[in-house]
Specification:
It is a single chain. This protein is an alpha/beta fold. The chain folds into two domains: 164 residues, 3-Layer(aba) Sandwich (D-Maltodextrin-Binding Protein, domain 2), CATH 3.40.190.150; 97 residues, D-Maltodextrin-Binding Protein, domain 2 (3-Layer(aba) Sandwich). It is 44% helix and 18% strand. It contains eleven helices and eleven strands. The strands form two sheets. It has a six-stranded mixed beta sheet with strand order 2-1-3-10-4-11, sandwiched between helices. Strands 7-6-8-5-9 form a five-stranded mixed beta sheet, sandwiched between helices. Helix 2 links the parallel strand 1 and strand 2. Helix 2 crosses helix 9 and helix 4 runs parallel beside helix 11. The radius of gyration is 24 Å and the shape is globular. It starts with 10 loop residues before the first helix and ends in a 6-residue tail after the last helix.
C-alpha cells in the first residue's frame, strides 16, 4: 500500500513560476496602458448635481470624451466638503478609469484646517489644471470706502465695528479674509454661514460689511450695483471685471489664492495614461469655444503639465496652512 507524500516544490521552479506570473501581469498592465482607454471613464464631481463645479465637470467630460474616443461619465459624490469623493478616488484602482475634479476645497483649504482621511498630495496623481477664478473683496454699499486704501483706513478707525461673512469656517472665503486682516492689520468679526447665498443676503441687507467670495459668485451683485468691489486676487486683473485692481497693484503681495479646479486620479497611475490624459485635457483647454464657455464662469484657463499641477497643489496647501496656523484656525 502506497502513501502519498507532499514534496516541496523545487526552489528554481517556484521562482520561475513567480517570474512568469509577474511578466504576464506587467505585459497586461503595459498593454492596458497603451490601449487606454478601452472602456468608459468615471469622472467624480465632489458636489451634488447643479452649480458651478458640476457644470465645469460636465463641460470638461463632454469634450474629453471626444478627444479620448471613449465616454467620460460624471458621477456626483457629495458630502463632507468633498472628503467622501476624495477618499473614493484615492481608494480606486489606479488604472485611469476613475478620475476626480479636485479643487481648492479638497486639495487646498481643507487639508490646511482639517484632519482628513486622505493625503491631498500622496494619495493622488495630478493630471492637470482646468482653470481658476479669483476671489474679490467686496463691501456693502453703505460702507464709506470707495477703494481699498479707504477701507483699510476706515477699518483701523473703527476696530471691532466691522464684520464679514463667509460660506463657512475653513473655506476660501474665510481664509482669504483672514489673510487680508493680517496683511492690513485690521480687525473684523467673522460671521460664518452655511453656504455663500445666505452670506450674500446678509451682506446686501447690511447685517455684515464685507465678504471675500469668488468673482464668479459676486458678478451678478456687482452688475446690479448691490455691492462694491475693492480688489481681486491673482497676478493679473480679471477680464470679467477689468476695472477692479489686484491686491498686488495696491501694495498687498502674496494674494494669489483662487478658486481653482483640476483633474487628478489615484496615486501610482501609469505614466503613459497620465501623459495621454494631460494631452487630452490641454486640448480641451485650447479650444476657443471652451474658453468662451468658461469665461461665463469668470474663469481663466490654466493648462499645465502634471508636474506643474502637483507643485501648484503643494504650494496652495502651504499657503493656507500658514494662514490657518497664524490665525489659530483648526477644525474637527
Amino acid at each position: 500500500m502506497f502513501t502519498s507524500i507532499d514534496k516541496p516544490m523545487p526552489i528554481f521552479l517556484s521562482v520561475f513560476i513567480a517570474l512568469f506570473s509577474l511578466a504576464i501581469s506587467l505585459s497586461v498592465y503595459a498593454e492596458t496602458a497603451t490601449a487606454y482607454p478601452v472602456r468608459p471613464i468615471r469622472l467624480i464631481a465632489p458636489v451634488a448635481a447643479g452649480g458651478g463645479l458640476d457644470n465645469i465637470a460636465r463641460a470638461v467630460a463632454e469634450r474629453l470624451s471626444k478627444n479620448l474616443g471613449q465616454s467620460v461619465i460624471v458621477e456626483n459624490v457629495a458630502g463632507a466638503g468633498g472628503a467622501i469623493a476624495s477618499i473614493t478616488t484615492a481608494k480606486a484602482s489606479p488604472d485611469g478609469y476613475t478620475l476626480m475634479i479636485v479643487y481648492v476645497g479638497t486639495h487646498g483649504t481643507n487639508p490646511a484646517v482639517r484632519k482628513l482621511n486622505y493625503d491631498a498630495s500622496k494619495d493622488f496623481t495630478p493630471i492637470g489644471m482646468i482653470g481658476a477664478t479669483p476671489n474679490v473683496l467686496i463691501v456693502n454699499n453703505n460702507v464709506p470706502a470707495k477703494n481699498l486704501a479707504e477701507y483699510v483706513a476706515y477699518a483701523k478707525k473703527n476696530p471691532a465695528k466691522l464684520s464679514y461673512g463667509s460660506s463657512g469656517p475653513g473655506t476660501l472665503t474665510h481664509l482669504g479674509m483672514e489673510q487680508f486682516k493680517m496683511a492690513a492689520d485690521v480687525f473684523m468679526v467673522h460671521v460664518p454661514y452655511r453656504g455663500i447665498a445666505p452670506a450674500f443676503t446678509d451682506l446686501i441687507g447690511g447685517q455684515t460689511d464685507a465678504m471675500f467670495p469668488t468673482l464668479f459668485a459676486a458678478i451678478p451683485y456687482l452688475k446690479s450695483d448691490r455691492v462694491r468691489a475693492l480688489a481681486v486676487t491673482g497676478q493679473k486683473r480679471s477680464p470679467a471685471e477689468p476695472n477692479v485692481p489686484t491686491f498686488e497693484e495696491l501694495g498687498f503681495s502674496g494674494f494669489d489664492g483662487q478658486q481653482w479646479y483640476g483633474i487628478a486620479g489615484p496615486a501610482n497611475m501609469p505614466e503613459s495614461v497620465v501623459i495621454k490624459l494631460n494631452a487630452a485635457l490641454n486640448q480641451v483647454l485650447s479650444s476657443p469655444e471652451f474658453a468662451e464657455k468658461m469665461s461665463s464662469e469668470a474663469m481663466t484657463l490654466m493648462p499645465t503639465t502634471p508636474q506643474q499641477f502637483d507643485s501648484y497643489i503643494k504650494e496652495d496647501i502651504a499657503r493656507w496652512t500658514k494662514v490657518a496656523k497664524d490665525r489659530h484656525i483648526e477644525l474637527d
